[in-house]
Sequence to fold (342 residues):
Amino acid sequence: MSHTGVKMQALVYTQPNEVQLQQREAPTAQPGDVVLRIDAVGICGSDLHAYHGHDPRRKPGLVLGHEFAGTVIDSASADWTIGQRVTGNPLITCGHCDYCVQGRDNLCANRTMVGMTRPGAFAERMSIPARCLIALPDALDAATAALTEPAATAWHAVALSARAMARPLGEGRVLVLGGGAIGMLAALLLRHQGVDRLEVAEVNSLRRASIEQHARCVAFDPRQRTADDSAFELVIDAVGSATTRQAALAAVRPGGVVMHIGLQDWASEIDMRKLTLAEITLLGTYTYSMADLRATVAALDRGVFGDLSWVERRPLSAGAQAFDDLHHGRLAAAKVVLEPSI
Fold:
């Protein structure tokens, strides 16, 4: 089945602070690849970072998007047949380096990425290596399945944090800095895992209300009040700014853990004296492993992250407006999912 000459709609990053709906040539299945009809695709914080012109790896002319769910419409792999519903790993790894064979494929030195080094999922169709795909349960709808990638990022970070803590996660007091998609999903997962004493710092009042409603925890404006000093066994920084890094080190208890996910600022000073004298564990985390993604699909199917009614769904044709709304902080939704078929 060939799509040579077939045109499709794609949301293209054209210049800083601009994406446009354009006609593009639809991809064909090269050996080992499949072509997906994209049923749903989420807008990631890194897509917004690129939209702002802050990611030199993502250049104008690129189709962004790596949080996807779709249906196989063309396959050059014996493992996948037309009609199968899938999500997948946007990290395309080599499979043979030390990290890949250890199951830590997120650290693959040879990795490339959908929506960065090859066209992404803000389009009606996308090609991807067959080995990246994960089958979806029949009852899991596409918009929910498109949350697999950000939810797996939260899953991986919470799991790493739990392994580093001196006592079980549910015993501790936990602070999440940032109520975007990763912060929201981390909060939902923490609540599911028995964390009763949970607070989320978020500057957007619409998001604070959504967090309090769905994660059933305290959400506060860090510009109005600071978190209690040296009071939290775990602090998750889902922003990664100079300000939040300092806030995380101030809030963590002696012997506690700071999990650093966000990368808003690439470098800044932190309180190394407290880190040393209070024996703080500072952890970085990058994405997820293939095992995390599979576990997250199963968790989404079980409803671990709740009803997800806070997610906003829009057609792909409204993608430019969605980026603008996110840019200006107009949305309560921590996640916007675009649906090309609408």
